[in-house]
Amino acid sequence: MVSYKDAGVDIYKEDKIIKALISQITFKRNDSIKPAEELKGHYAGAIEFGDYYLVLCTDGVGSKMIVAEMANKFDTVPIDMIAMNVNDAICIGAEPVALVDYMAVEDINEDIAKQIGKGLNEGLKESNINLIGGETATLPDMVKGIDIAGTVLAIVKKDEIISGNNVKKGDVIIGLRSSGIHSNGLSLARKVFFDIGKMNINDKLSHGKTIAEELLTPTRIYVKPVLDMIKKVDVKGLAHITGGGFRKLIRLNKNVVYLINNIPEPLPLFKEIQRIGNVSDEEMFRTFNMGIGFCVVVDKEDAEKVIEIANHYNIPAYIIGKIEDEVEVNGEKINNKVIVEYKNKKMIMK
């Protein structure tokens, strides 16, 4: 069986590296502009600014850019970059308002630049944000190909922040359908298709789409429906399901169990990756979104309204799980974890 680690990505090593880096950062400004301590370890960081928090998120598209280069198609990856940022920002109830982008290139031509500009414009429109600046660096001695990243600014009133601290037993987890692989797990997907499967970028998969079409489908942007939900429903927690899958839910409240026990049928792409690569269920759920790109935690009585709002924006939504104090797995009582129940098997997402 092939794993994400076999493809060169060790998510547990990444966790250790981040902790090592953060352990060395002790400096803080000694004035009224303070970080929001209640958001430490959450999806987005923020600083106090009067009655508001200014929120910052930064991200790129990872090895999805390699797929874009293989297909010579660059107009969707900028949407991914924006999506990865804005979808994180809304996890604390913040409204994204502006983006600065960074592009590092070995070399680039005008056609590729136009494609990237087209994608940026589409992502800006879907997120309702402005591009206010950026940087392009030509670095032939450092960069092979093209890499793009960005930083998004978002705002939220201090008394309207959604931290997830009040998530409690009895609440339900609503999953919003992903558009596909989004921007995570591409290293494993590439290893499965191109190394193990010996396939080409334009080969068709069994469900009719080409590898390029599937892997370059842009990440769904959840800004408009989620901000609408926040206005109309008492939303308790929000989670962007990216690298590490449902493990990310634990960022909301570390004192409960997130039981995902009603997962909808995974998208055809994930079934193909699992079949060709002989990837275990556990590895699939630790690496990919498996068809759920965003989660909303609410009281049970608010679930129908959240699903209705998602459907209004043409996003399928489902009750995929619930919050518990503890769950029994193989005779052991489990606390403070994310548990996925799939094919009559409970998997602890460590």
- Total helices: the number is 10
Average pLDDT works out at 92
SS elements, strand count: 14
Computed structural class: alpha+beta
Compute the CA-based radius of gyration: 20 Å
- What would CATH call the class of the largest domain? Alpha Beta
Major beta-sheet overview: 7 strands, mixed
Strand order of the largest sheet: 7-9-6-10-8-13-14
Shape: globular
Q: Could you spell the SSE succession in H and E letters?
A: HEEHHEHEEEHHHEEHHEHEEEEE
Distance between the termini: 19 Å
Question: What is the CATH architecture descriptor of the largest domain?
Answer: Alpha-Beta Complex
Count of discrete domains = 2
Low-confidence stretches: none
CATH topological fold name of the largest domain: Phosphoribosyl-aminoimidazole Synthetase, Chain A, domain 2
Helix content: 25-40%
How large is the share of residues in beta strands?
25-35%
What does this structure look like?
The structure is a single chain. With 350 residues, this protein is an alpha+beta fold. It folds into two domains: 32-160, PurM-like, N-terminal domain (60s Ribosomal Protein L30, Chain: A); 172-348, Phosphoribosyl-aminoimidazole Synthetase, Chain A, domain 2, CATH 3.90.650. It has ten helices and 14 strands. The strands form three sheets. Strands 7-9-6-10-8-13-14 form a seven-stranded mixed sheet. The longest helix has 18 residues, at 110-127. The radius of gyration is 20 Å and the shape is globular.
